[in-house]
Structure formats: structure tokens, C-alpha cells
RNA sequence: GUGGCUGUAGCUCAGUUGGUUAGAGCGUCAGGUUGUGGCCCUGAAGGCCGGGGGUUCGAGACCCCUCAGUCACCCCA
């Protein structure tokens, strides 16, 4: 086998694309109902956009981006996520000037050069939405509902929905100091990874998978006890909205975000079916990003969710995708003359909106009948030399085996 | 990027302590008397045993390297 696709990529063959199309259809349906409209941006952007928005210190930017220089000497990067692109487009086209609230969704490929594993590819696909312009907790909750509704309508019910607040520049620095103060004396006992995080991003130590780290942070100060009044009331209102709607959730102070532009609400939807990469989707508020990218101060909230992971979960729950509707009719021609006539008939039927297919190998009647059977078509049309001479053909009802002769120019009327 | 496990037909897998021409099921294709599907029966095609090197009289089996997959870490959706 000489040519293979690159590590961490996948071909989607027809059996697969059927599932993808179904998924996309359900996603678009929910998005539209919540009145989010689709945005499509380029697969690559200037590298600077991601450096600026995601942050140079992060792993995503530091070691996972597909970055290249084009012939004009510009540094470009395949998008590793979508929020930066959406925000860039929002600012570039001054969408905020046209509507005070913009609700956008996307479905598309993202690129990250990581070691692949279950539910993590180098080219992977995400869907998500961004609500730009509203600071209200209702907007946060709406994005949550979009995600939860999509999963629910796909038939996935056993998910863990976790929320937290990561504060804002008003309250986070003080909390971070408090946390660092608590953790520093424990420094030696922490895992090496966490020891590094102590200076770079102490909050991430809270969501370490290391068991020792976990128990060491058992009594660590949690941010939701240290929120400023503004963040605190926002978080409470989010919770009370969810309570009113009877949405199940769990507040978990260990849920944090790596990026600086996140503020207030953070949430994640997890599945037990996924192994280590257990996050199906995650989102939160990022009120600072727009200004970071030199736009106007614009509150924003949104989520991103992995499609491959969603397909894995659907698989393990044995949620099947509806079978595709089979073509209406399979055309069986016997002999070269009939085959030539049949391809014209196929053209006419298709032009009249009738889905059909035929055999192109001039095979035996038996072989063609088997094909018709496999395709699960309701009708087969048989055209041999004898029928051709009389300008008729045989229409066969595949479910009961009934056959009748029909003039060639009346086929379409007979199989509706 | 680091570590563990795996790599035999299109797919799922057998291949005994290294020993003749590498197997099964499913799928594909063709037949089972003149031009009729599903079930059944018969047959065929299809493998440089992931790739390279080594040990050996002899390697699909053992060793090394490499590539790919997979799981975990890191990180994330």
C-alpha cells in the first residue's frame, strides 16, 4: 500500500457520509429553531489571529498548529478552532453595527497536530454557536440549550452537564493568588506537570487527572466562593434559569479554562462513552476577546462540540441513522441495444424527478435482479430485445412479484 | 511530544514449541439448463502475513528499526 492518508485524518466513505449528513441535518434544524444562522470562514487565517486570541503560551498555539508560509511570505495557519475566526469576521464586517445581537453557528473541519487517539484526530470536525452582543445570563443559557437540545434530539440522554464560573479580571487575580498561596507549600507533592502549572496557570491544577493532585486540591479554595458581586449574581442567575427549566447540571469548581479571554460562565458536556477524551462539547463566556482583537467591547458566549466524538457516542448507544430512501426503480436491460435504449430511459426518468439506476455491465437477468433486490427498490423495469421491438417494457413490483407490460413512454406514470 | 499494546484477503478473525503450495466466516463475482430477486447449494477471484534489516537449513511466528493503528499521559471538542 503506497499512498495512505496522513496520520490523524480520515476518509468518509458513503456509509459514513450518510451518518454525517444526518448529523448535520439535525444540528442545522436545532440551530435554526434557536435562530442561529450559519457562518462559514476560511479554513486558514493569518497566524497572528490565533496567537493573539488563543494565546502564545497555550499548547494549541505553541505546538499544535499547522502553520505555513505562503508564497507571499505571509504566515498562515489552518484553524485549530472556530471562535477566533468568528470573532475576526464579526469585527471585520462590523456585524455589531448591523444588529446588536448576532447569533451565528458553524459546522466544519479544524486542524491540530496532536498525537491521535480515540475521539481526537488531526483534522477533526466541530459544530458550535456564538452569541455575540448580549451580556445576559439568558444568552449563556441559550447556548447551553442549543447544545443540550441537539444531543437530546439525537437520542442521547445520559450526559453529564457541568458548569462553573471562572470569574473576570475583577475577581480572578485575587482568587488566583489565594489558590497559589494554598498550592505552593504543596509544590513537591504535586505531579511534575502541575508543578509547572503553578506559575503558568495554577487554576489548571484543579482539573489535573493525577490522583495525588486531585486529593491535594480537595480543600483548595474554589473560585465560585471568591467571585465578585457581578460575577456571582451572573452565575446565580444562570443556575436559577437552569433550575426553572429543570435542566440537570452539576457545579464543579474544577472546571476551568486555559485561555485568558474566558470570563464568567464555563461549561462542559461529558460522556462516559468516550474514555479519556470525555468532553463532547464545551463552552463559555468570553467577554474580553473582542476587545483583545481590537474590536469594540462586546460580550459574547458560545460553545464548540466535536462531531467525531458525537458519532462515537451515538455508536456506542447504538443510535442508528435512518436508512437512506432507495431509488424508485432499477432498470434492467438485456443486450446492448436494450442497454442503449435504457440509458435514455434513465435520463428521462431522472429528468422527471424519479431516482433510478441501471446496470452498466450487460450482465445476466439474474445478476441484475439480484442487484435490484439489494438496492431495495420498489420497482424493476425489464427491457429485452422482444420488448424493445414492441416499444414496451415490463414493470415488476418487487414486493409482490407482479409484472405488467407498459409502453415505453408511459413508464413514469406507472411507477409513481 | 512521552509511554504501553496491536498490525495475516474488502471486513471480522484462525494460523499449534519456527517446518511443505497461508485458512475460515461475511462480502464480491459467476453458475444451479432457454429472459426473473430474496432463502439454499456449488464454484471462483482476492494476501510481497504493514515496510526494511537480522537470527536460522528454514520466519506469518523470534530480534532490531521504521510506518500505521490503538490506549493512556500532555492538551483539548
Uncertain stretches of 5 or more adjacent residues: none
**Helical proportion, percent range:** 25-40%
End-to-end C-alpha gap? 47 Å
Regarding quaternary structure, what we see is single chain
Overall description:
This protein is an alpha+beta fold and 416 residues long. 38% of the residues lie in helices and 21% in strands. The protein has 16 helices and 16 strands. It has helices spanning 14-33, 47-54, 59-63, 83-92, 95-98, 137-153, 172-183, 192-200, 211-216, 229-244, 289-292, 307-316, 336-351, 365-375, 385-390, 411-414, and strands spanning 37-38, 44-46, 67-69, 75-78, 102-111, 123-132, 160-165, 250-251, 263-270, 279-285, 300-306, 329-333, 356-358, 379-383, 392-397, 403-407. It has an eight-stranded mixed beta sheet with strand order 1-5-6-11-10-9-7-8. A five-stranded mixed beta sheet has the order 13-12-14-15-16, sandwiched between helices. The chain has a three-stranded antiparallel beta sheet with strand order 2-4-3. Strand 9 (263-270) and strand 10 form a beta hairpin. The radius of gyration is 28 Å and the shape is elongated. It starts with 13 loop residues before the first helix and ends with a helix. The model has no long low-confidence stretch (mean pLDDT 92).
Amino acid at each position: 500500500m503506497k499512498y495512505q492518508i496522513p496520520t490523524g485524518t480520515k476518509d468518509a466513505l458513503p456509509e459514513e457520509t450518510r451518518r454525517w449528513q444526518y448529523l448535520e441535518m439535525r444540528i442545522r434544524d436545532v440551530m435554526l429553531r434557536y435562530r442561529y444562522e450559519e457562518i462559514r470562514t476560511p479554513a486558514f487565517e493569518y497566524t497572528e489571529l490565533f496567537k493573539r486570541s488563543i494565546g502564545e503560551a497555550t499548547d494549541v498555539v505553541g505546538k499544535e498548529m499547522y502553520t505555513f508560509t505562503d508564497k507571499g511570505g505571509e504566515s498562515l495557519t489552518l484553524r485549530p478552532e472556530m471562535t477566533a475566526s468568528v470573532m475576526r469576521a464579526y469585527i471585520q464586517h462590523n456585524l455589531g453595527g448591523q444588529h446588536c445581537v448576532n447569533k451565528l453557528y458553524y459546522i466544519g473541519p479544524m486542524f491540530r497536530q496532536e498525537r491521535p487517539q480515540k475521539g481526537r484526530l488531526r483534522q477533526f470536525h466541530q459544530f458550535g454557536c456564538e452569541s455575540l452582543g448580549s451580556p445576559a445570563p439568558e444568552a449563556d443559557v441559550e447556548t447551553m440549550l442549543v447544545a443540550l437540545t441537539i444531543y437530546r434530539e439525537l437520542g442521547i440522554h445520559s450526559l453529564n452537564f457541568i458548569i462553573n464560573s471562572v470569574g473576570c479580571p475583577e475577581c480572578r487575580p485575587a482568587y488566583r493568588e489565594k489558590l497559589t498561596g494554598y498550592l505552593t507549600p504543596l509544590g513537591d507533592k504535586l505531579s511534575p506537570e502541575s508543578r509547572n502549572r503553578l506559575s503558568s496557570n495554577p487554576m489548571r491544577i484543579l482539573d489535573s487527572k493525577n490522583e495525588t493532585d486531585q486529593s491535594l486540591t480537595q480543600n483548595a479554595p474554589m473560585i465560585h466562593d471568591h467571585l465578585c458581586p457581578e460575577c456571582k449574581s451572573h452565575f446565580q442567575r444562570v443556575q436559577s434559569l437552569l433550575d426553572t427549566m429543570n435542566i440537570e447540571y452539576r457545579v464543579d469548581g474544577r472546571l476551568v479554562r486555559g485561555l485568558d479571554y474566558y470570563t464568567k460562565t464555563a461549561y462542559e458536556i461529558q460522556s462516559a462513552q468516550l474514555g479519556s477524551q470525555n468532553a463532547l462539547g464545551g463552552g463559555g463566556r468570553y467577554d474580553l476577546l473582542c476587545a483583545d482583537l481590537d474590536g469594540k467591547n462586546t460580550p459574547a458566549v458560545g460553545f464548540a462540540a466535536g462531531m467525531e466524538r458525537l458519532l462515537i457516542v451515538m455508536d456506542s448507544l447504538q443510535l442508528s441513522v435512518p436508512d437512506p430512501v432507495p431509488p424508485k426503480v432499477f432498470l434492467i436491460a438485456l443486450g446492448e441495444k436494450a442497454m442503449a435504449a435504457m440509458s435514455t430511459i434513465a435520463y428521462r426518468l431522472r429528468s422527471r424527478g424519479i431516482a433510478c439506476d441501471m446496470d452498466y455491465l450487460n450482465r445476466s437477468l439474474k445478476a441484475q435482479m439480484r442487484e435490484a433486490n439489494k438496492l431495495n427498490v420498489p420497482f424493476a423495469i425489464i427491457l429485452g430485445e422482444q420488448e424493445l421491438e414492441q416499444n414496451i417494457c415490463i414493470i415488476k413490483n418487487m414486493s409482490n412479484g407482479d409484472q405488467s407490460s407498459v409502453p415505453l413512454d408511459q413508464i413514469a406514470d406507472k411507477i409513481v
